[in-house]
Amino acid sequence: MTIELFREDGYLQRCEATVLDLADSAFSTDRTVFYPMGGGQPGDTGHAVRKSGERIRVIDTRKAPGQDRILHIVEDGAALPGMGEVLTLQIDWDRRYRLMRMHSCMHMLCAAVPAPVTGGSIRDGSGRLDFDLPDPPSREDLERRLNGIIEGNHPMSFIWITDEEMKERPELVKTMSVRPPVGSGRVRLVRFGDADLQACGGTHVANSGEIGPVRVESIKNKGKQNRRITIEFA
Q1: Which of 150, 117, 141, 146 is nearest to 131 (CA)?
Q2: Distance between CA 217 and CA 34 in Å, rounded?
Q3: CB 88 within 8 A of CB 13
Q4: What's the number of CA atoms in the CB half-sphere (13 Å) around residue 143?
Q5: What are the phi and psi torsion angles at 146 (to 5°)?
Q6: In sequence order, which ranges of the chain are alpha helices (DSSP H)?
Q7: Are 28 and 19 in contact (CB under 8 A)?
Q8: Rounded to an integer, what distance in angstroms lies between the CA atom of residue 6 and that of residue 43?
Q9: Rounded-to-integer distance, Cα 212 and Cα 102, Å
Q10: Which residues, in sequence order, are CB contacts of 84 under 8 Å at separation 6+?
Q11: What are the strands, taking DSSP E only, across the chain?
Q12: Is residue 227 within 8 Å of 139, Cβ to Cβ?
């Protein structure tokens, strides 16, 4: 099992960890600051630093299928660390922080567009959500409303509830195509002040103001009632 340090603190940039298992072009450790791909957010990249100072490039991070382990994926042919080896894991912080800002922006977009979310994804510098919405909003009005919510400086906080409570409160799942992490006995809710509250396992900034100004890149029709709204940093 890998202890996921990023669940409690998305600002952690490095940690010491012990190698528990090796796979093809990947290794897992007892703990990590690397976020694995999920919830529309890409997996982290970075380095594993050996005691000798040698740096092993981590090009992606994924969940091991059906297991409570996180795989740090290296380039094909790259040397893997040894079993039991102690490493310093260090994420590409600038990239992670941009992803944190955009992921948080998607929460603000949910607040700006009160409609069910049918899908979405986040990239480095942009993100999109698909809304079950009969009529598309005005691009200018939405951009103004979204930036107004961001500028409200809503503080982010976590609330933990049980799996049973989660089942009784389906309204806390905003994205119908992505389910929050369940099965461990508790589920994490992410609150941004009075702007947004939803179940989410991703990484977020401490205050909505950190997102910075954004622009609505496009609003596209993707079906009879499906509106794809793409946001990018201004």
Answers
A1: 117
A2: 29
A3: no
A4: 15
A5: -65, -50
A6: 93-112, 139-150, 163-168
A7: yes
A8: 12
A9: 10
A10: 18, 19
A11: 3-4, 14-23, 26-29, 31-32, 46-49, 55-63, 70-74, 86-91, 117-123, 126-132, 156-162, 186-192, 196-199, 214-221, 226-233
A12: no
d(CA 230, CA 186): 32
Q: Which of 27, 36, 16, 6 lies closest to 73 in space, CA to CA?
A: 27
Q: Which of 203, 204, 167 is nearest to 185 (CA)?
A: 167
Residue burial 201-216, b: 16+ Cβ < 10 Å; e: rest: bbbbbebbeebeebeb
What does the pLDDT profile of the chain (234 residues) look like in tens digits? 999 999 999 999 999 999 999 988 999 999 999 999 998 899 999 999 999 999 999 999 999 988 889 999 999 989 999 999 999 999 999 999 999 999 999 999 999 999 999 889 999 999 999 999 988 999 999 999 999 999 999 999 999 988 888 777 877 777 655 565 555 678 889 999 999 999 888 999 999 999 999 999 999 998 877 999 999 999
C-alpha span between 208 and 216 (Å, rounded): 17
